[in-house]
């Protein structure tokens, strides 16, 4: 009876973890998924080491984490039902009606949860028959849920890369983006249109992470402010659940590049105050970069 209780608890924990990870909109993975993914990510980071070439390892981190998570679900479900079928000697019988051994029970559990329907072993009691039905149902549920989850994650990654490409097309750095958008004493309408189009993309990216940032010629901030709010909302979504805020903020872009380009800017004191006021936001940005394995030593895009 003890093995049945422990086995059902393991099965229940795996199902709850999978449901929390794939179906919950609270933005937090289940405890098993969280520990497996964090452990796998730390392992890959350690194997990758430091330096630009580490990204050859890190490019496989997402696939590795997903496969490790799915493997942990299957292994937990398999282990739980194996304990249930090991509770009594006659729970699983071979084709001659003899009690199956330990490995055979493990094998019987595997083809039950994977719904293979191999008939060389069969349940020997009424309780084992009910358990077999439960194993088939939970196995079908978990595998279907896992495959659906993998497809959703792939779709979210595509969205993330699309946003990255959209932003990179505007310019490799903040100052370059502003310089490109400035024309004839004002920001070009196409530039503000690009910023406006980024807002729903960032909001959608944040929701994806839950389901699964001048006195004389004041620019129109109608496109900039919603984009900034969307970026802050995205970082608040990631903070705690997905990233850890860094102690030091990301470096603020210098104003000299904009001044040389003839773009009116605020005075140095007001800019320094604004940078200091956004320290928490910039620390989140730095934490996001660090959590993805990026640092100041990585090569940067240039306009050359």
UniProtKB/TrEMBL annotation:
Which keywords label this protein?
Membrane, Transmembrane, Transmembrane helix
Q: Which Pfam families match?
A: Ion_trans_2 (PF07885)
Residue ranges annotated for the Potassium channel domain, each copy included: 82-154
- Return the SUPFAM superfamilies for the record: Voltage-gated potassium channels
Please give the InterPro entries that the UniProt record associates with this protein: K_chnl_dom (IPR013099)
The membrane-spanning stretches of this chain are 6-26, 57-80, 100-118, 130-151
This protein's name: Ion channel
Organism of provenance: Micromonospora halophytica
Species lineage = Bacteria, Bacillati, Actinomycetota, Actinomycetes, Micromonosporales
């Amino acid at each position: 009876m003890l093995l049945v209780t422990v086995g059902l608890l393991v099965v229940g924990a795996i199902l709850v973890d999978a449901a929390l990870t794939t179906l919950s909109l609270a933005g937090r993975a289940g405890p098993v998924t969280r520990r497996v993914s964090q452990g796998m990510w730390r392992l890959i980071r350690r194997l990758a080491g430091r330096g630009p070439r580490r990204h050859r390892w890190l490019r496989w981190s997402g696939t590795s984490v997903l496969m490790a998570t799915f493997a942990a679900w299957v292994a937990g479900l398999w282990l739980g039902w194996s304990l249930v079928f090991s509770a009594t000697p006659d729970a699983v019988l071979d084709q001659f009606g003899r009690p199956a051994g330990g490995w055979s029970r493990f094998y019987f559990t595997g083809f039950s949860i994977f719904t293979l329907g191999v008939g060389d072993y069969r349940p020997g009691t009424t309780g084992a028959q009910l358990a077999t039905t439960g194993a088939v149902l939970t196995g079908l549920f978990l595998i279907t849920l896992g495959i659906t989850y993998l497809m959703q994650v792939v779709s979210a990654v595509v969205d993330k890369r699309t946003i990255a490409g959209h932003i990179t097309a505007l310019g490799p750095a903040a100052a370059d983006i502003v310089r490109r958008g400035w024309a004839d004493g004002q920001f070009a309408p196409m530039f503000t249109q690009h910023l406006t189009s980024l807002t729903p993309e960032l909001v959608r990216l944040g929701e994806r992470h839950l389901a699964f940032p001048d006195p004389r010629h004041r620019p129109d901030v109608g496109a900039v402010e919603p984009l900034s709010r969307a970026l802050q909302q995205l970082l608040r979504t990631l903070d705690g659940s997905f990233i850890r805020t860094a102690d030091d903020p990301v470096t603020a872009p210098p104003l000299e590049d904009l001044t040389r380009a003839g773009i009116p800017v605020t005075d140095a004191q007001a800019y320094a105050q604004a940078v200091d006021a956004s320290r928490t936001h910039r620390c989140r940005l730095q934490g996001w970069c660090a959590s993805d394995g990026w640092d100041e030593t990585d090569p940067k895009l240039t306009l050359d």
